[in-house]
Amino acid sequence: MPVPILYVIDSFKNPHAGTEGQLYQLVQGIDRKRFSPHLLVFQESAYLKENGFPCSYTVLGRSGLTNPAAWLALWKEAKRFRESGGKIVHAFFIDPSIMCPIIFRPFGVHTVISRRDMGYWYTKKYLFLLRCSRRAVSSVIANSQAVKDVVSRNERVPKDGIDVIYNGYEERVGDASIPDEVLFLRNQYPDAVFGVIVANIRPLKRISDAIVSLAVVVQKGGNLRLVVIGDGDHNGLSQQAEALGVRERVHFLGRRSDVADCLPAFDIGILCSESEGFSNSIVEYMRSGLPVVCSSVGGNPEAVEHGVSGYLYNCGDTNELADSLMKLVLDENLRHKIGASALASSGARFSKRVMVEEHQDVYSELVS
């Protein structure tokens, strides 16, 4: 009989977002002969209403660590889950990671929590609560060694209680169908080299560093253009580019759901973030055969081998970033060589099949 697993998350709004996308892939791929998944969301979302989920789901209708009604509602769900034979709950994001171990442990249910970033959200309050609840946690899953180290150090979880499972992605079938507007942009500047950043526009992503480096490359004679794909207000970045004399070389495409189809139109994948657990964008670049230039933070060095599948630079060092970009702008053969290496590496290491199997191994060990 399949083992019931309850996945718990605050809300599910976007299957293309980092954590939500990996949860979607996991539930979609899990072996239904071995496990029976169900999703519990604290709050309903427009996406779930319109599209559903790969498994059945329940809306708790309550949220908040300081809301007694949320704790009571979750206790009732835990009781119901255990009475139906449930054995494992897997929690994502902050509030579920704190609440689920405390609520489900008395019912004899194993709690797994996922950690997928470098803890930029840590506060004294959250750390205190996480440390208090950690003894009720059966297993922690991190998506990089860097995240594992941060969790162990800050949440005081023994390293042997943390498994590293890298993000997994569907194998691509056939060639990408590049959107017409992206092809039009590309064909307007056939001689240019296009760098692309896939990131929402917010300070943590340091997209302004790429614009500074773009200006340096152009000043040195490099025919580089920059495309930014992601949600957020780009007025500040546009003004910066204008002041540096490169506004007409920066193209903002906004939020898109067809990023994988867009990427093959470009030449270099760029990420300037000051904090990354394990970047989906970097893997998507690699899966599209793009050489990667990224900041050497978090799990980035675990994905990109410097000089082989891309270049790593010290976060915030725009001259070093510009130098790496310039190498690739000036040498088409080097771009293709490094891009091919990135593609080969990503296919072997970051598959959906491996990600799902490794999660199933964790679950099986808990109930064996």
TrEMBL record:
Domain Glycosyl transferase family, residue spans: 196-342
Species assigned in the record: Marinobacter nauticus (Marinobacter hydrocarbonoclasticus)
Coiled-coil parts of chain: none
UniProt-recorded Gene Ontology molecular function terms: glycosyltransferase activity
Any GO BP annotation: carbohydrate derivative metabolic process
Swiss-Prot/TrEMBL keywords: Transferase
Native organism taxonomy: Bacteria, Pseudomonadati, Pseudomonadota, Gammaproteobacteria, Pseudomonadales
Top-level taxonomic group: Bacteria
Name this protein carries in UniProt: Glycosyltransferase
Glycosyltransferase subfamily 4-like N-terminal domain: residues covered: 18-169
